[in-house]
Each structure stands twice: as structure tokens, then as C-alpha cells.
Design brief:
Layout: E1 5-10, E2 13-18, H1 28-43, E3 49-54, E4 59-61, H2 74-92, E5 97-102, E6 105-107, H3 109-115, E7 119-123, E8 127-129, H4 143-151, H5 153-161, E9 166-167, H6 168-174, E10 179-181, H7 186-197, H8 202-214, H9 220-233, H10 238-248
Parallel strand pairs: 2-3, 3-5, 4-6, 5-7, 6-8, 7-10
Antiparallel strand pairs: 1-2, 8-9
Length: about 260
């Protein structure tokens, strides 16, 4: 793992920090490192949630370094877009809760990594944008898809087609983020949310997350069927048995993520 992606395990939470100053831009190596890391976290049953943030107090992430595209090489573009897609799709499929603590500018691929998370907290000074069309490009790591799903087609078009920058208050108003906090408080609040999720069964969270995301591509009647099937499958888990027993015994459950 390169220094551009740092991870710190705190109990059941993995804290991921994008660390590539001055703007925490993505590189091919850091994208591959993120994919590898999320796979490793998925395999670690002690990890229930992850929080991703940017190093410093100015940038969450400015996305890709445009110098990578200066030569107009289509092979480079194809390789990097594939790496972006693979990394952020892997992040979106993390089995637990993922939270972006947006602590500054989140531009292009910097906003797209936040869009790949389940929840987003923005510090009040944060600015968010997908400005790729201004340089003849487009968001290629889920931006056109995830943004429209979150905020609706109209706001997605204002942000992408008109190049509008969104401040934290606007982001909260349109549903791009779930909370706005004071400067310097994003990480603390994100970790607090992760600890809240630890009260729930991690096997239940994984199942619920899959079902919620299924609603993006399946009709509701199909999702309802998947929901009932998933409910029954949970009875094969130790956590299901533990959760019911703990409730009946009026004690805190001891989750094993199994």
C-alpha cells in the first residue's frame, strides 16, 4: 500500500485517508491500492464500517491530475478510466457502511469517490463539483449515474452540464450530502455514525445495503421478492440468532459478523 492511501483501523472502523498533497489527487497506483484495500476490508470480519477523508484542511480530493491527459493518449485515458471505475465500484460494493467525510474541495474524481459511499458528511467550507466538461472530458467514475440517482436529473444536469459548484448548504438541501458540520468536525461525526451502525448486526447491514442498491436497477416488485428471500436467509446467520436472543435477554448483542 502506497502512502497516498493510508488506513488506520479503529476497533470495527477502517479510516481511509487520501494523502497526495497538495490536492489529494488520484493516481493509477492509488486507485489500484483503494481497490485492493476494500477487498481486504471485505475479507476482515472485524471491520464493519469504513470512513474516507482527505489529508489536510483544504482538499477532500481534486480528482485526477489533468497532466495525465495532456498528451491526448486514448490508451492512457482508457487505462485510467478503467482504474477509476474499478476502484469506486469496489468501494460501492463494500459490504458494510461507507461514509465520506468531505473536509474541503471535492472535485471530479474527488466527488465521485464520495458518491460511491453510502453516506456523505460535508464540512461547512466544502465545495463540490464535476467540472470535467469544462476541459472537454466527462465524469467517468460513476458521476453521471450516482449523482443523478442521488439528486435527480435536473440538479445533476446543472452540476455537470452547467458546471455549477455546490457549497455544503446547497448539497444538504438537494440531498447530495446527509449532514453539514463545522470545519474540522467531519471526521468526528463520520466515526460517530460508524459507531451507531455497530449497534446493528453487520450481516443485516450487508443484506440491507444490497437490497437498497438493487432498487437502482430492479423494479420494486422484484426487490420485494429479494427482500423476503434475504430475510429468510438471515436465519442461517449466527448474528440473527444472537440478536433475537440478546433482545429477549435484555442485553447488548455480541455480533460476530457470521
Amino acid at each position: 500500500m502506497k502512502d497516498t492511501i493510508q488506513v488506520d483501523i479503529q476497533d470495527h472502523v477502517a479510516l481511509i485517508t487520501m494523502s497526495n498533497p497538495p490536492a489529494n489527487t488520484w493516481t493509477r497506483d492509488s486507485l489500484d491500492d483503494l481497490s485492493t484495500l476494500v477487498h481486504e476490508l471485505n475479507d476482515n470480519k472485524d471491520i464493519y464500517s469504513l470512513v474516507i477523508t482527505g489529508q489536510g484542511d483544504k482538499f477532500f480530493s481534486a480528482g485526477a491530475d489533468l497532466k495525465l491527459f495532456a498528451d491526448g493518449d486514448k490508451k492512457v485515458a482508457a487505462d485510467l478510466s478503467t482504474a477509476f471505475g474499478r476502484a469506486f465500484e469496489t468501494l460501492s460494493q463494500f459490504r458494510g457502511l461507507s461514509i465520506a467525510a468531505i473536509n474541503g474541495y471535492a472535485m471530479g474524481g474527488g466527488l465521485e469517490v464520495a458518491l460511491a459511499c453510502d453516506l456523505r458528511i460535508a464540512e461547512q467550507q466544502a465545495l463540490m463539483a464535476l467540472p470535467e466538461a469544462a476541459v472537454g472530458l466527462l465524469p467517468c467514475a460513476g458521476g453521471t449515474q450516482n449523482l443523478a440517482w442521488l439528486v435527480g436529473e435536473g440538479w445533476a444536469k446543472r452540476i455537470i452540464l452547467c458546471g455549477e459548484r455546490i457549497n455544503a448548504a446547497q448539497a444538504l438541501q438537494i440531498g447530495l450530502v446527509e449532514a453539514v458540520v463545522e470545519q474540522g468536525q467531519g471526521l468526528e461525526h463520520a466515526i460517530a455514525w460508524a459507531h451507531k451502525a455497530e449497534r446493528q448486526s453487520p450481516t443485516s447491514i450487508a443484506a440491507c445495503k444490497r437490497l437498497i442498491q438493487t432498487a437502482r436497477k430492479e423494479p420494486m416488485f422484484a426487490g420485494m421478492g429479494y427482500e423476503r428471500d434475504a430475510f429468510v436467509r438471515l436465519f442461517d446467520s449466527n448474528d440473527s440468532k444472537e440478536g433475537v436472543q440478546a433482545f429477549l435477554e435484555k442485553r447488548k448483542p455480541n455480533w460476530t459478523n457470521s
